[in-house]
């Protein structure tokens, strides 16, 4: 039997993303354009939801995926595979046509899922963004071993694969994240593509039931996610410097959960070191315990 998450994902995958993006680019942007790219099909989520234990996973959410057409492997994994799946589906009307796309999503963190490009093994995993977050989350909540040296970073990947639901408020790639939060919130009710994506988000949260919602970045991303999903009066700031956080409550898909917003981990204003992030996590956990 096809899962509810798979059905909701296929509804997004099978849409005419070029028309959707062309329409949404002017709707969501601050000014003339949100710099969305219609070259790349949507990115519904990454990781395998079936590997996540309900109530014992973290939802990591951003505004939307970053366009990087020159990054090794990007054209193959983010453009070629999805477009080939869409083309095969249009010919066969068979949902199995999307299997390679699902494999790319589900094996995103798997270092044995790769291609050879210019004589090198290339996988879809974007370590510059994910590795530090995976190690931080693993140390704070999932008793992860200390991170190993080297490019594969198996501990971070293992934490992300088994404990993290990663998705974005907008599934379409762009050059920037300059979107208008009020327009985005309205589009989730009125635009056909964003309604489908919101239905997928709701389904993911209903099935996975994350222990908390985490936002990497306090300014643009944090403010956007608060506007979209937050309970406005619940938010408060805790801590100082790079370990300062904002906490509160959010609701997605009928699932109410605590939200942790911290500085961007790859920025000098965010919790780059293990010590700094553990201070964020400890402050968050103390606040959360006071809510019961």
Question: Could you provide a short overview of the structure?
Answer:
44% of the residues lie in helices and 14% in strands.
Helicity level: 40-55%
Structural class: alpha/beta
Q: Report the average pLDDT across residues.
A: 94
Beta-strand residue fraction: 5-15%
SSE sequence, one letter per element: HHEHHEEHHEHHEHEEEH
What is the count of helical runs?
A: 10
Distance between the termini: 38 Å
Secondary structure blueprint with pairings:
Blueprint: H1 4-13, H2 17-28, E1 58-62, H3 74-92, H4 99-106, E2 115-117, E3 120-122, H5 127-141, H6 154-163, E4 164-168, H7 181-190, H8 192-208, E5 212-216, H9 220-229, E6 236-238, E7 245-252, E8 255-262, H10 274-290
Parallel strand pairs: 1-4, 1-5, 5-8
Antiparallel strand pairs: 2-3, 6-7, 7-8
Helix pairs in contact: 1-8, 3-4, 5-6, 5-10, 7-8, 7-9
């Amino acid at each position: 039997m096809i899962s509810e998450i798979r059905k909701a994902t296929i509804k997004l995958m099978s849409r005419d993303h070029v028309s959707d993006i062309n329409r949404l680019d002017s709707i969501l942007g601050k000014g003339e354009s949100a710099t969305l790219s219609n070259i790349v099909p949507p990115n519904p989520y990454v990781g395998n939801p079936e590997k996540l234990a309900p109530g014992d996973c973290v939802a990591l959410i951003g505004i939307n995926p970053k366009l990087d057409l020159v990054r090794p492997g990007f054209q193959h994994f983010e453009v070629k595979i999805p477009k080939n799946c869409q083309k095969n589906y249009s010919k066969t009307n068979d949902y199995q046509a999307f299997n390679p796309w699902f494999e790319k999503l589900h094996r995103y963190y798997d270092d044995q899922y790769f291609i050879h490009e210019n004589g090198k093994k290339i996988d879809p995993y974007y370590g510059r963004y994910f590795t530090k977050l995976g190690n931080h989350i693993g140390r704070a909540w999932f008793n992860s071993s200390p991170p190993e040296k080297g490019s594969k970073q198996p501990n971070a990947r293992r934490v992300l694969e088994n404990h993290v639901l990663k998705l974005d408020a907008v599934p379409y790639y762009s050059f920037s994240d300059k979107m208008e939060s009020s327009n985005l919130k309205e589009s989730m009710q009125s635009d056909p593509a964003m309604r489908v994506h919101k239905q997928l988000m709701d389904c993911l949260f209903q099935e996975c039931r994350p222990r908390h919602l985490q936002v990497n970045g306090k300014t643009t991303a944090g403010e956007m996610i608060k506007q979209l999903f937050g309970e406005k009066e619940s938010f408060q700031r805790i801590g100082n410097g790079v370990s300062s956080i904002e906490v509160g409550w959010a609701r997605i898909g009928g699932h109410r959960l605590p939200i942790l917003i911290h500085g961007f981990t790859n920025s000098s204003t965010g919790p780059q070191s293990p010590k700094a992030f553990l201070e964020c996590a400890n402050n968050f956990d103390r606040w959360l315990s006071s809510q019961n």
